[in-house]
Design goal:
By secondary structure, this protein is mostly helical. The chain is 64% helix and 1% strand. It has helices at residues 6-23, 25-28, 33-49, 68-76, 79-92, 100-124, 127-132, 136-164, 170-173, 177-200, 205-208, 212-246, 253-267, 272-284, 294-297, 305-311, 314-322, 331-337, 358-373, 384-394, 401-414; strands spanning 57-58, 64-65.
Length: 447
């Protein structure tokens, strides 16, 4: 545990002791060992078999969790026995990050505490009797309360480990954790409740296993989606890395433009699917530089008019490169048109105003903002306030005023904290303003 901060060690130890205290009474009371053993074994088996990140839950400890069986134990067993049922699965689960045993003990303790609290809430609201009756509509109330309690405990404990072990600021450690965890836990809770009802029915425990069949199929379907999405991300990374290698002076620029584009999109209340597509647009907006001769991108000194015309072909090169990548959607139009200007003086087609696709208008603002605020080998980056002032000055002629205003609001709310970019390490002295680097002001246009 030498790599773990002392505060995190103390926190994990406290949670481990709490988890042991929650499960210990099951060892000395009249526990239904048959039911406990079956549920604990089934939960451990599901943990080994299930590697789905979407149906399952992935917390800061890196473990994916399949909750229906564990929540069925909450609905069927006394609180201490439900806490004990979580331990074998968590301790036997595969952990990829080190220190592995510390992570396993932490997860086992966390789930034991969550199961103990949620089972207590469920029992106090009469859930055990409702399932045994069965009074299924009424059973939804205590089951729902138990799911809320389960998610709340996980949220509180996850936030604590983020603050102590991951050094996340305390004011933000818990932000958004409950909302992200509650939806999948609620789905798993409904499946666990159906398992509990069937378990207590005349058909017995074996019938409860039928609930896991559709969950397993769903897990497989979402796993296919996850693999496809991972392939998309790998494609994006490969293209961006190729651009970074070719044009080393803009290394990291693409990711920051993607981030700024997302800030603008969220401020404009775009749908999540469009936000993701716009992030791809920001990341890939300069992919066409792969078609530009490297000597022009790295040239020291001003470009000739002929050389500038060659560089100004990069949006069209980029559009051709990504034309066949279907998942990019609207992002392809942004790659082609992100150098258009509202007054029609941009390139490659001189579009005017609303003729310019919305995604391209967003990326144009994000691109110019990062170009001004990033530190290069030949100049220091501008302060955020100065860059925003310059964007506002050019709003209406070069940039869409709505996009500039959205970026301003987003930065007022979230701030701008990108990694500082300085591409001076290990390279020859960089170009002067107006050469192959970004210009000194957005009015000159970024390449």
């Amino acid at each position: 545990m030498r790599s773990i901060a002392p505060s995190a060690r103390a926190y994990i130890l406290c949670v481990a002791l709490a988890g042991a205290a929650c499960a210990a009474p099951a060892l000395t009371s009249h526990t239904q060992w048959g039911a406990l053993g079956l549920l604990a074994g089934l939960y451990a088996g599901c943990e080994q078999a299930s590697r789905c990140r979407v149906i399952g839950r992935r917390g800061p400890n890196g473990l994916g969790t399949f909750f229906p069986v564990l929540l069925a134990a909450v609905f069927l067993l006394p609180p201490a026995a439900a806490a004990l049922a979580a331990a074998p699965g968590a301790l036997l689960a595969r952990v990829e990050r080190r220190p592995r045993w510390v992570r396993k003990i932490w997860r086992a303790a966390q789930l034991a505490v969550a199961a103990r609290v949620s089972a207590g809430v469920y029992g106090r609201l009469g859930g055990l009797d409702a399932v045994a009756a069965p009074d299924f509509p009424y059973a939804l109330l205590p089951a729902g309360a138990a799911v809320v309690a389960f998610s709340a405990v996980l949220t509180v404990l996850d936030g604590g480990i983020l603050a102590t072990a991951e050094r996340v600021p305390v004011r933000t450690a818990w932000r958004g954790l409950f909302l992200r965890s509650f939806a999948p836990v609620a789905v798993h809770g409904l499946a666990g409740l159906m398992m509990a009802v069937l378990w207590r029915s005349p058909y017995g425990p074996l019938s409860a296993l039928l609930v896991l069949l559709p969950m397993g199929i769903s897990c497989w379907v979402f796993a296919q989606y996850h693999r496809e999405r991972a392939a998309h991300q790998a494609t994006i990374r490969a293209l961006v890395q190729a651009v970074d290698i070719k044009d080393r002076y803009t290394r990291g620029h693409s990711e920051r433009v993607g981030h700024a584009s997302v800030l603008i999109a969220r401020e404009l209340q775009m749908a999540d699917e469009r936000v993701e597509s716009l992030r791809f647009a920001g990341i890939l907006h300069d992919v066409g530089k792969l078609g530009v001769p490297t000597r022009l991108l790295r040239k020291d000194g001003p470009l000739t008019p002929e050389e500038r015309r060659v560089i100004e072909l990069h949006p069209e090169y980029g559009h051709e490169m990504v034309r066949g990548i279907g998942f990019l959607g609207e992002a392809r139009a942004a790659i082609l048109h992100h150098h258009e200007r509202m007054d029609g003086s941009g390139y490659p087609y001189g579009l005017v105003g609303q003729q310019i696709p919305e995604f391209a208008r967003v990326v144009a603002v994000a691109d110019a903002f990062d170009a001004m605020t990033s530190t290069r080998s030949y100049r220091r980056g501008r302060p955020v306030a100065a860059a925003l002032a310059e964007l506002s000055k050019c709003a209406g002629s070069q940039f869409d005023p709505a996009m500039v205003a959205a970026l301003q609001r987003a930065l007022d709310r979230h701030g701008w904290h990108p990694a500082v970019t300085s591409d001076t390490a290990g390279v020859v002295p960089g170009p002067r303003p107006g050469a192959s680097g970004v210009p000194a002001a957005p009015g000159a246009g970024t390449r």
